[in-house]
Amino acid sequence: xxxxxxxxxxxxxxxxxxxxxxxxxxxxxxxxxxxxxxxxxxxxxxxxxxxxxxxxxxxxxxxxxxxxxxxxxxxxxxxxxxxxxxxxxxxxxxxxxxxxxxxxxxxxxxxxxxxxxxxxxxxxxxxxxxxxxxxxxxxxxxxxxxxxxxxxxxxxxxxxxxxxxxxxxxxxxxxxxxxxxxxxxxxxxxxxxxxxxxxxxxxxxxxxxxxxxxxxxxxxxxxxxxxxxxxxxxxxxxxxxxxxxxxxxxxxxxxxxxxxxxxxxxxxxxxxxxxxxxxxxxxxxxxxxxxxxxxxxxxxxxxxxxxxxxxxxxxxxxxxx
Length: 321
Known about the structure:
Blueprint: H1 9-21, E1 25-31, E2 41-43, E3 47-54, E4 60-63, H2 65-68, E5 73-77, E6 83-92, E7 97-102, E8 123-128, E9 136-153, E10 156-166, E11 178-180, E12 186-195, E13 198-203, H3 206-218, E14 224-225, E15 228-234, H4 237-243, E16 247-254, H5 259-262, E17 270-274, E18 277-278, H6 282-286, E19 298-304, E20 307-313, E21 316-317
C-alpha cells in the first residue's frame, strides 16, 4: 500500500494549533441556578458548563462572565486528566469577561495575541473543552470584524466593541474557550453563537487587556458615566475637511441630571472630540470611559447650530442598578 499522503498545509496549521492549545483550555463546572448565555450548556444540579483559557503561569484563567454568572467558585478540568478548584477573581458582564484563579497546578499558559491585526478571511481555530467533548476543535475564517454585541449589567447597557465574527462552529460549552490565529495566539474568547454557522468572540486587544488587568488587580472594572445616548452622524463638508473624517456622534438623548446634562449637552449636538480624541462611533467614547476620568474635568467639543462649542463634563462612576 502506498504511503499515506502528508497533511495538506491547511490541516497542518489546524492540527498544530489544536496540539498547542488543547491542553491549555480548561473545562469548567460552575455550580449555580441561573441559566447561562448563548453557547453555554447547563449540567445537572444547577451547574453551568463552559471553557476557560490559561493565560498566566501562576494559574489565572480567562473565560466569559456569563459562564460564571454570580458564582464565586467552581472546578476546572484539563485535557491531561487533572482538575483543580478555582475562585472567581472578578467578572465584568459589560465586556463578558471573567478572570479565575486556580488553587492547583495548571498547564503552561497560552499566548495572547492581538485581535486588531485580524483581517476578514483569515484562518482562525476555535478550541474549547466542553464537558464530554474534551479538546473540541473547529476551524474557519474571520467572516466579519467590527461587529458590536450588546451586553447588560443591571440597568447599564454597553456594546462590546469590535467583536469577531467567525464561521468556525462553536460546540455547546465552548463559551470561554480560545479563538486562535494560525500561530496559536489567542485573539478572542468565544462568547456566543450568532446563528447557524456563525460564532462571536470577544477580541483580545488593548481595551480587553485593560479590563483583564483591572479584574486581576481590583476584581472589578470601574467605568465612567456621562448619561447620553448617541448615534453616528455625518459631519458637514467643511468640518469633514477640517477634521479629516466624515462622521461624529449625534446626541439623541441626554439623561436629566446626568454629568452630560449638567455640562449643558443637548439632544442634537454633534460630538466631534472627547478628551482631545476624535469620536466617530460609540466605541470611541466607550474606550475613554474608565476610572481615570471619573470625577475629573472631561472636555467635549460639539457642533451646535452650525457653531463649535466646548463643554466641560465631569463623569461620575457607572453603578449597576
